[in-house]
Every structure is written in C-alpha cells, then in structure tokens.
Design goal:
This protein has 370 residues and is mostly helical. It is built from 13 helices and no strands.
C-alpha cells in the first residue's frame, strides 16, 4: 500500500490495519476509524468507493496533480509543439498540455503524459504476447531511448502506479509500478514521499519472500533516499551491504554491481571519506568504461563523481586537480552529445566545471613548477 499512514491521525500503518468496508480507507485503530467517520469521512466515502476505492482514488488524484506540475514546468519548451503520439497540442480527452523530459532535441519528443502512459501500457501487453521493450516504456523514451527525468518521470510514476495499483500484491506489474513510482518521486526531489514508497516496497518484498537480487535493488533505492534526507550513516551501511551483495551475486562487471558501487562511493564522498571513495572509483570506473561504454549514463555519472571526489578533497594534489578538470571536460562533452544541454547530468557537470578550472588555475599559480 502507498497509503501508509492512518487517514485520521497520520500514524504509520501496519499491513493488517483495519479499513473502511466500503472504500478501503485504512486506519491505525477502530477508534480512529470511527472518529474519522464522524469528522466527515461519511460525506466522501461513496465518492472514494466510486473512484475505485482508497488506493486507486488517491493515485488518480496525485497523478492529475503531477501531470499539471510537469506540464507547467515544460511550458516554455513545448510552446507551439504537438504530441508525437496523437499529433495534437492538447490531449483530446484530458485537455492536458505537453511535456518533454528525456534527451530528445529540436522538434522531437513532445508528448502528453496520458499518451506516454497509454503507449507504455500497450508495450507491456505486447511484450507479454510478442516481445518488445515492455515495461521500459514507463521510464524510457521510445525515440531517443534515454530515461525520463525530473517532474516528467514523477508524473509517469504516478501514471504507472494508477494503472496497476488495483492488481494483487503478487502481480509483477504492480510490484514494478511501485518501483517506478518511488523512482519518479525521488527524481522529482519528493524525498519524504519516496521514502514511504521505498519502505512499503521493501516490507512487501520481504513479506512475499522476494529473491535476494530484488531485495538488494530495493535496499539500494531506499539507501539513496536515506542519504538525500540526511540519514547518511544509515545509508552508508546499507549501501555497503548492497554493493557487497551484488559483487557476490554477479561479480564486478554486472551493471547492478556498478550501480551499487557508484552509490556507495557517492555516500562515502558525502561523509568526506575521500580516500575510500577514490579507491573504490579507481577500481570500478575503468570497469564501467569497458563494459558499458563511454556514452552510458552510468559511466558518465561515475566519472563525474570521481572528478568531484578528486576536486573536493582538501588534500587534493595538483595532479588530482588536473585529473579532475580533464575528467569533467571529457564527461561534459560526452553528456552534451548523448543527452543534450538540458539534461540534469549535463547541467550538473557544466555547473561545477568552471569552479574546478578556477581551483586548478589558482593552484598552478602557487605551484608553477609542479
């Protein structure tokens, strides 16, 4: 369940918490349920029931809110454009505007979230029957084949969740939809909301006896959320365990192992454990470049993280700064070519590169013979 707090008092809910028999709104106790009924639930209970019961009603509402945010954020970029799926400027049914949150450039990639969601739903069904990209369409653009990001990814996360929330907990699509929702909330920087989804997902997987690799992925996502909320020591221990688990299961060349290594190194850096972070990245960045290629998003991200560790370390040598600047310059060029100038990764690298260059010039002025 994504509704993880009591509707009356907001206390955390157990999986077996009591619920309204008509609309399935959940409560921490029968006392809260009766109190909520007296305070107005009676008036909206039937409306929630007609909307598919509490989870579906909530998902539909949050989806509409997320789409409105995404459309507004993309308004300047989408002006005068049409949806590449339905070819209309306004969606024929919802009247929503356009978004673009991938790596498409020029006149490509504009779409309605509703059209993207329908495209993804069809792709999942087609995959079951004939093969194809399947669930990837919920997070990856069919034109540029790069992942959506920011508020567009968040809107698609809610679209995915509202599509599959009515299925049983054991249904794979519902489980994957929970992951997509958590990722979308995280990438839109709604970290508290993402945390509740991640924790609910991990509890569900443990309850259902999910395999170890699935648990490791969810724990890694949860650890990232802990870190963004300032719970870095908890995040560090979990990221260490996740990296060790992936290394044991898959070896150093597996993409999941490299993701876990990147996340662990970032957490070490956040705690200013620079030497440990540098040692880990010196081992794993060459593996990512060899296995995934220079233009892969993870490779670029890992190299950017490595450059940042070198640059931000108070004990950085002149050679460290030179290596950092070179790495920033190379990754900025690759990111701009692969993702475009508006992608968050390109923007991030471009924002820190001038600072790294300035630090290098200042050091070279004081150590001209080095």
């Amino acid at each position: 369940m994504i509704l993880t707090n009591c509707a009356a008092c907001a206390a955390p809910l157990a999986h077996t918490a009591p619920r309204c028999l008509r609309c399935e709104t959940r409560y921490c106790s029968s006392t809260c349920q009766h109190d909520h009924w007296r305070r107005g639930h009676e008036q909206i209970c039937e409306e929630i029931h007609r909307g598919g019961n509490a989870e579906q009603y909530h998902a539909d509402k949050r989806y509409k809110e997320a789409v409105a945010v995404a459309v507004e954020a993309c308004a300047a970029d989408t002006k005068g454009q049409t949806c590449f799926i339905c070819t209309q400027a306004l969606h024929w049914k919802t009247k929503e505007g356009l978004v673009r949150g991938c790596s498409c450039r020029g006149a490509s990639g504009f779409a309605h979230v509703s059209c993207l969601a329908r495209q993804a739903e069809v792709a999942v069904e087609r995959r079951r029957r004939h093969g194809g990209p399947g669930f990837a369409r919920w997070h990856t653009c069919s034109l540029c084949e790069q992942r959506y990001h920011g508020v567009v990814r968040c809107a698609l996360g809610w679209a995915c969740w509202k599509t599959y929330v009515g299925r049983p907990e054991t249904d794979w699509c519902r489980q994957a939809a929970m992951t997509q929702l958590g990722n979308g909330l995280y990438l839109a920087k709604h970290y508290e909301d993402a945390l509740s989804v991640r924790e609910a997902e991990l509890a569900m997987e443990r309850r259902l006896g999910a395999p170890e690799d699935d648990l490791l992925v969810t724990q890694g996502n949860l650890a990232n959320t802990y870190e963004m909320l300032g719970r870095r020591e908890e995040a560090l221990q979990m990221k260490h365990d996740v990296y060790s688990g992936h290394l044991r299961l898959y070896g150093e060349e597996h993409r999941s192992t490299l993701i876990a290594a990147s996340n662990y190194a970032a957490c070490l850096f956040g705690l200013e454990r620079f030497e440990e972070a540098k040692a880990l990245l010196r081992r794993t960045v060459p593996v990512a470049r060899r296995v995934l290629g220079e233009g892969h998003e993870l490779t670029i991200s890992m190299r950017q993280n490595f450059a940042t560790v070198l640059f931000r370390d108070d004990g950085a040598t002149l050679d460290d700064l030179r290596e950092a600047v070179t790495m920033y310059e190379e990754t900025e060029r690759i990111a701009r070519r692969v993702f475009g100038g508006a992608h968050p990764l390109t923007v991030k690298i471009g924002g820190i590169l001038p600072k790294a260059r300035a630090a290098l010039r200042a050091r070279e002025a004081t150590e001209p013979s080095a």
